[in-house]
């Protein structure tokens, strides 16, 4: 049983690496190709837009990164790498793949982030991918629901923390104004 499992892991890893290697070349060619009709100032605007998007993603990854015991930067880097192989990959599906793998990985070692992302890359939905990895339809549905609850909980915690921080910041500003008024 152990040998079979090890062979399955090795095969999955090698398949994932082969897919990554092949698609990185394609993605690099797509990025290198120029788009007709661009003006000279567009690359700067695109760069600013990309940096702004990256900063927003980092802020948005804070809660779920904590739940997954990683950093927002690590998730952002992993998302960028995954999008090289699957440009259609949404941020939500990426997060779901990570949460599902984290939730199910202990009981089902074949459910990994790479395996789920591979299924999405081949055009399967999250549910279909989970079923292809050995879950029943009901188990897949419940796993997706649990992952959604975990993501919503993480997002709510971040919103609550941000709200408390703004309230503390507002109190600090009011205190500073009061001190400045009394010192005059």
Structural commentary:
This protein has 184 residues and is mainly alpha-helical. The protein has one domain (51-183). Helices cover 80% and strands 0% of the residues. It contains eight helices and no strands. The chain has helices at residues 2-32, 42-60, 62-67, 72-85, 91-104, 113-121, 126-132, 137-183. Helix 6 packs across helix 7 (126-132) and helix 7 (126-132) crosses helix 8 (137-183). It is globular, with a radius of gyration of 22 Å.
Keywords summarizing the entry:
globular, 8 helices, mainly alpha, 184 residues
SSE inventory with pairings:
Layout: H1 2-32, H2 42-60, H3 62-67, H4 72-85, H5 91-104, H6 113-121, H7 126-132, H8 137-183
Helix pairs in contact: 2-4, 5-6, 5-8, 6-7, 7-8
Task: Please give a quick description of this structure.
The chain is built from 8 helices and no strands. It is mainly α and 184 residues long. It is globular.
Q: Helix-strand pattern, N to C?
A: HHHHHHHH
The fraction of residues assigned to DSSP E strands is under 5%
Give the strand tally. 0
In angstroms, what separates the terminal alpha carbons? 80 Å
Residues in helices, as a percent range = over 70%
Category from helices, strands and their pairing = mainly alpha
Mean pLDDT: 80
Identify the overall geometry: globular
Cα-atom Rg, whole angstroms?
22 Å
Spans where pLDDT lies below 50 across 5 or more residues:
34-40
Quaternary organisation: single chain
Largest sheet entry: none
When the domains are counted, the total is 1
How many DSSP H or I helices?
8
């Amino acid at each position: 049983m152990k040998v079979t499992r090890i062979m399955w892991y090795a095969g999955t890893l090698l398949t994932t690496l082969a897919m990554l290697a092949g698609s990185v070349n394609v993605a690099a060619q797509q990025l290198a190709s120029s788009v007709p009709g661009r003006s000279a100032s567009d690359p700067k605007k695109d760069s600013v837009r990309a940096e702004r998007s990256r900063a927003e993603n980092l802020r948005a990854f804070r809660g779920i990164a904590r739940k997954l015991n990683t950093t927002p930067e690590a998730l952002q880097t992993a998302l960028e790498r995954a999008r090289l192989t699957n440009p259609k990959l949404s941020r939500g599906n990426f997060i779901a793949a990570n949460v599902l793998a984290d939730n199910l990985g202990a009981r089902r070692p074949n459910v990994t982030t790479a395996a789920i992302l591979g299924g999405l890359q081949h055009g399967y939905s999250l549910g279909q991918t989970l079923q292809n990895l050995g879950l029943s339809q009901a188990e897949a549905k419940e796993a997706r629901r649990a992952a959604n609850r975990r993501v919503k909980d993480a997002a709510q915690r971040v919103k609550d923390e941000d709200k408390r921080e703004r309230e503390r910041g507002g109190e600090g500003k009011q205190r500073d104004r009061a001190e400045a008024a009394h010192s005059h």
